[in-house]
UniProtKB/TrEMBL annotation, chain A:
Belongs to the NGG1 family. It comes from Thrips palmi. It comes from the Eukaryota. One of its GO terms (biological process) is regulation of transcription by RNA polymerase II. The keyword Nucleus applies. It is found in: Nucleus. One of its GO terms (cellular component) is nucleus. The gene is LOC117652020. Keywords: Nucleus, Transcription, Transcription regulation. GO terms for molecular function: transcription coactivator activity. Its main location: nucleus. The keyword GTP-binding does not apply. This is Transcriptional adapter 3 isoform X1.
Automatic annotation (TrEMBL), chain B:
Residues 33-95 form a coiled coil. This is SAGA-associated factor 29. Its main location: nucleus. Keywords: Coiled coil, Nucleus, Transcription, Transcription regulation. It comes from Thrips palmi. Residues 150-291 form the SGF29 C-terminal domain. Pfam families: SGF29_Tudor. Gene3D superfamilies: 2.30.30.140. The keyword Hydrolase does not apply. It is found in: Nucleus. InterPro entries: SGF29, SGF29_tudor-like_dom, Tudor_SGF29_rpt1, Tudor_SGF29_rpt2.
Amino acid sequence: MNNVLSGLKVLWRKISWNSVEEDLAIMSRTVTPKQMPKMAASKGKPATKKNSGKVKEKSKCKSGNGSGSSSSTLGSSGIPSVGSGDSPLNPEPREEVGLGFPLPKTTDTSRTLPRYYAVLNRSEEEGVLMDDLDQLQMDLESLLSKVAVRQRLLQSEILSINNADSSIDRGKASSPGKKGRSRGSKLVENLTKTRDVARSSSSKHSKKLYRMAPLAGSVPVVPPDNDPKPPAPKVLLSKNSAPNRFWISVEPYCSEVNQEHIKVLEDLIHHNESSLQSLLETPPLGEHYSVNWALQELVEAQEAASMNKQRRKHASLPSSQDAANILKRSSRFGFEKQSTTPGPGPFANRLLAALIQENPVSPLHESTECNKVKVKIENDDDDASSAKRIKLEVPGEKPLKDKVRATGPTKVVGGENIVPYKPHVIACFERSLRLQLEAQGLLDTPEVKKEEEEEDGVLSELHRCQEELQVLAQENERQLHSMIKLLQEEMVRQDLRKKLKHQDSEILETYRKIVAAKQKRKPLSKSERDAAWKTVRDREVVVKNLDALERKW
Amino acid sequence: MNQMAYSADQAAFQVQERLKALYRLVHDIHDERQRSELNLNSIEKAHEKISAEERVSPHNQQQLKTLYTAAVADAEQEEDLIRKALAKVNEIRAIRNERRIQARNAGNKETIRRGALMKMLQCSAQTLPLWVGKPGEKAPPLCGAIPMEASYVAKPGDMVAALVKGAEEEENWILAEVVSFNTTSGRYEVDDIDEEQKDRHVLSRRRVMPLPLMRANPETDHLALFPKGSVVMALYPQTTCFYKALVNALPSTATEEYEVLFDDPSYAEGYSPPLPVAQRYVLAIRDRKGHGHS
């Protein structure tokens, strides 16, 4: 307490009346003497809180009726409570102005910005010295900060005024009185808040100045006091902009509807229809993915094989891992269900069986053609099994076809004596063989059917989705249409409301005329009277129409 | 900044030029302040009037708006001048720093006592340029808590925190000054700021963290400060080492410092009592290794 008092006494001597009065007024409203040390210790925070509470009360009063009743709140702010013990500090208490910016007072410069002030008072020759630099920088920075804060504050105030203007325009029809009041009190509240928060931060600031002074060395110790131009907080900015943002976001929902809105909805309907059409079309069936993939793999395998041959010495088979993957995949396609046995596929087996075991099996069917083939195969037999493999690996050759045709119905014998083939080679060979057989009409196509079934699954899924989509689109369209209908109704109502407004103003106009006439004690002419009645009746009609519509709604 | 090399005379001349400009600017600022005060006084009067009337009439509002707009224009003028003055101050510092680096490269390394060093560190933290953003402007990298850009390389003479191995294989983040950066190896050469350790360290970029180049102004750019409760690396007062700490209180003005609680197992709660650390010496924590405070 004593510290505070002595500090205040120093203050008393040093500062202009004006700021002391302000400080006291603030304190007197917020603290009793008991609380004062506590306030000083907690950097003035409690003061802020209490003060803002007061502000609310004040603004409530103001918004209540706008008459003088609230001045008592301002005036009866308990100034005597400060009085005990510090009478020299109690000059004629002037009522504190509730609003106000933290204004910089150039007269206080010597105290708040010592080095800046010192430089100001120097002659051109003396100028700025290197020793000044640190402290001068700090002074300039605090000036800059204050200016920046002031700028933000002013801009937020301008914004809030602008906003109040626009909200007034908007709210005129509904409840102009309420809006107007809230705007006024809002502004007042803002201003007061600004000051309060500014004050709290100023006390912090000056405290710091005090603490720092010894560090800076040559700087004279500045007593802790209230800075007359404390910086205002930027918190305020966000506080002010929140309602603005809210109103901006709400604006489109409250604004009047017009033809353009209908157009947007109609465009939406058209767009939906056209896009739906394209979605409902079933695209033409392409080649089955397994066919595509198999062909790709065939090409890859061939490349790999040729590479392998070319540089057999290169032990590194570059795609051994890849090959394994391909094999794994191809087995998934169901091309080689027998892949557990490392021999050739069923077609190859049948073919081989037909070729090798020709004599005991089909002597009866032998023909001249068959003989030819046999001879050829016997020749081939000399070249050992590798030759056969080569032949198998090159499908589509004419002799092969002939052989196939020649063998006709044959018995299937297991390929136990066959050298193991790479599974993908088998698969490919099987496939091409089967295609050929089918092309020749020698083989039914059961597997193909299976594939088609699979495709049917996709198709049915597609249809299902399309149906769902259609239902959804119909619902959307229905909603859009109903919205358009609502819009149209709303526009009718809107027109009526506009008309009503017009009528209202007309009635007011005539009312004013009548009052003016009465004041001049001039009787109204009949036509004027009729016109007045007509406007009233017109208005009634409009109101009735509007009511009817609203009821229907 | 000024990258030119100055001779001693040139440097002195350049500094003198700027000091003169600074003197003139201070006077200009003063004139401008007096001018804006007129307007602000009338704003105050308007406020008084409004509070006396207990309401804000549309006319008052328009009047206020005009006054505010004029005041904003004044403030912009004033701000501009102050920025210019501060730019001069920074230029002078840059010239002096340049001279210092030159002297160091030439081999005459100034030796400072430990007490003086601590004072110098304190001082350089206080005179670190202050960033005051224009409305809506974002604080740049290396301002306050804003991290550096990934590609940023600290310049010679810049202060950094460097993770170096101590005598007993323990690693510490120390305060150091950049000597050079080798672009090919991506390594910094740094000097321990503590003169008693005559070590020069070569460290990878990962082990070097530049200190902020600007202070953030709590009054306008509080978003560029570490929030309360964040874990940071802070320079332990009266040492040249960074340790893990918890932000306890933010500075509320440009001249104030953070209040941090250092990780300190010797205290029962595991934290030291609150200690003040300047904005410049509070860094984002990067690595969990090496700040165990013993």
